[in-house]
Amino acid sequence: MLSSASREYRMSFELLLQYLFSGITSGSIYAIVAIGFNIIYNTTGIINFAQGEFVMLGGMTAVSLSAVMPLPAAIACAVVITSLVGALVEIACIRWLRQPSVLRMIMITIGVSILLREAALHIWDEKVRALPYFTGNECSSISILGAHMSPQVLWVLGVCGAMVIFLSIFFRHTLTGRSMRACSSNRMAAVLCGINAKNMVTISFMLSAAIGALAGCVISPLTQTQYEIGTPLAIKGFTVAILGGLGNTTAAVAAGLLLGIIEALSISVVPVAYKDVIAIGILLVILFFKPAGLFGNKETGRLSEF
Amino acid sequence: MKRLIPLCVLAVFVTAVQVAVTAAGQSFYLTQLTMAAYYTIVVIGLCMLMGYAGQISLGHAGFFAIGGYVSAALVTADFSAFARSGIGHAFVKAGFLALGKDAYGSAVALLNPCLACAAAILAAVAVAFLIGVPVLRLHGHYLAMATLGFGSIIYKIVLGTKVFGGADGLTGVPPFVLVPGLSVSGAMAERVPNYYVAWFLVCAAALFMHNLVDSRAGRALRAIHGNEEAASAMGVDTARYKLGLFVLSAVFAAVAGVFLTHYNGGIGPSEASIMKSIRYVAIVAVGGMANLWGAVAASVVLNFLSLRGYFGSYDEAVFGAILVLVMLFAPNGILIKADVWAKLGKRIHH
User: Fold this and answer.
1) Is B152 on the interface with A (CB under 8 A)?
2) Which pLDDT band holds residue A300 (cuts at 50, 70, 90)?
3) pLDDT tens digits for B115-145?
4) A2 at the B interface (CB within 8 A)?
5) Is the ipTM of this complex over 0.95?
6) Quick count: other Cβ atoms within 10 Å of Cβ B344?
7) B320·A238 Cβ contact <8 A
8) Are A280 and B152 within 8 A, CB to CB?
9) Full-prediction pTM beyond 0.80?
10) Where are the domains positioned within chain A?
11) Where are the alpha helices (DSSP H) in A174-274?
């Protein structure tokens, strides 16, 4: 009697752990998308609605390139190509506008996201693709505390963690990163110091496209890539960015993991068809009651912290 | 009287198109023109919300879907169990429920489409009110994302709910009898009357909004668009006016949804998709914010071309490109208002 009860407890503990890991995996991707939002928001004050499309483009390009070159080279090329697309978007649609209104920028980036998605549909097709697993295959699994998962989960966590560390070093200790921070805190003063603010905006688009593309590559074996995955990712990434307080990268990581875990646990309560409704519901509730985010008051919500 | 000139032009144009198309023996064009008319009603409401109240909504397809789906679900549902009850009897007597037989010969009780229409509009009003109160306190990106989130929640709900038919949507919606002899349906013989019903609704919606702009409420809304703080300081109850217009535009969208669902005989989840919402916004942008007649013209042309399939597989790409190009090069719309033309003319004369 006792042993069966304890086995049941162990089962549910393992199940919980399983849910937690799957939540952390998708959560870390949301966090990367949110950081992509934040980088562009901090340098320009624009929310780039096409952010999710960078993730999609990275995954799709890498899948195609992996047919002709080794996987690491394919991923590297996909990241470079996507960041060039990011630069192109900025140069074509944003660089030359003089003090565009927020409404105008929202509509332009939404239009760009539709164009990128439709371009992907016509370059590739509507089929679902995936990169091969980085180590092992879809059957190999490792077990941690009794929970089984794919080694790819460790790749996702490792790469996302490395990206966050790289970004914080980049923004604190390199000249370019510090110039970008200067632009975001006071653009006029930065320009007077001889910083080319326009180039910093281009770099911020390239950087956020690049990290989005890399995230799209590492998640591709697990969740697959299709031309349509961008918009849901953008909504969730934005939810995370708001949850953490717009512009705050450290908080975005925490908020991303939080949303991922909530979503994963919610599957055991509500039907899978409504999974996205939970995330969007959280977004609406946060927007209505605490638009500065969970981790900030009104002041820090406005301050941009990389 | 001068204010009504655009309306008269529209009415004459609509009639002329019908006569010409029928005379040419190509009356199949009227089907797409009728559908375009219903989408235009959504555009009219959104144009007022964006242009005059300055509030962007990326979720208006959600209200269209609420209208269409609620009425479709109600008129196709079988109320025979309810009809046997005491209140049900009264409903049957009053003509609210119609007893009949379905294709398999079993008895069914169907709800009167008028009641379903009223319920759908009430549902849209309730949702718009509940969403509008918190959402309209937001600005800029937050407002855009909140309405986008609302739209995608509606999409996910209709896609994942059995009552709404999931990915297949609802079909078998019966004709909506407006008066004896005139019903909203896709029947070939009723093409011409339906065309006029749709365009009558467009004219009525446009006239209503046109008068609203010149009223006290319209002046308040324009003040809000100009500078919300200033309007508030002058004693305009900004929250109330914004909410009122939001609910009104939701009602327009819901009415369009009800009528188009009866016209098509069904509704699918694509009507609730985010892309549909963005399409409405793109059309308003082309016509020019706060330019009612421009939005109507843009809506008819673009919806007609899209429904006829002229854009092929590039349909969505065309709307994306339109949105980007218009916002980059002509943020005030490509169809400039008449008074701007007049001003330009004066400048040339001087």
Assistant:
1) yes
2) very low
3) 999 999 999 999 999 999 888 888 778 888 8
4) no
5) no
6) 11
7) no
8) yes
9) yes
10) 15-132+152-302
11) 175-185, 187-192, 197-223, 230-244, 249-266
Please, what are the domains in chain B? 2-69+113-349 (1.10.3470)
Q: How confident is the model at residue B336, as a pLDDT? A: 59
Residue range A136-164, pLDDT digits in tens: 777 777 877 777 788 888 899 999 999 99
Q: How far is CA B312 from the centre of its chain?
A: 24
pLDDT at position A302 is: 42
**Any A CB within 8 A of B281 CB:** yes
Among residues A201, A206, A63, the alpha carbon closest in space to that of A127 is found at A63
What are the chain B neighbours of A107 within 8 Å (beta carbons)? 281-282, 285, 323, 327
Q: What's the distance, CA A61 to chain centroid?
A: 17
**Interface contact B335, partner A, CB < 8 A:** no
Q: What is the rounded distance in angstroms from the CA atom of residue A261 to the CA atom of residue A257?
A: 6
Task: Compute the distance between CA of residue A41 and CA of residue A303 in angstroms, rounded to an integer.
Answer: 11
**Vertex A142 angle, CA A136 and A143, to 5°:** 170
Name the token pair of A101: 């209104």
A107, A113, A286: best to mutate for the B interface, most B CBs within 10 A: A107
User: Rounded to the nearest 5°, which phi and psi values hold at A17?
Assistant: -60, -40
Q: Please determine, for residue A78, whether its predicted confidence score (pLDDT) is greater than 90.
A: yes
d(CA B302, CA B272): 19
SS3 call for B219: helix
**Of A234 and B82, which is predicted with more confidence?**
A234
The CATH code of the domain at A15-132+152-302 is 1.10.3470
How far apart CA A40 and CA B218 sit, in angstroms, is: 37
Q: Which has the higher per-residue pLDDT, A103 or B275?
A: B275
Mapped onto helix, strand or coil, the DSSP state of residue B174 is coil
Q: Do A107 and B281 touch (CB under 8 A)?
A: yes
- Element (DSSP H or E) covering residue B278: helix B274-287
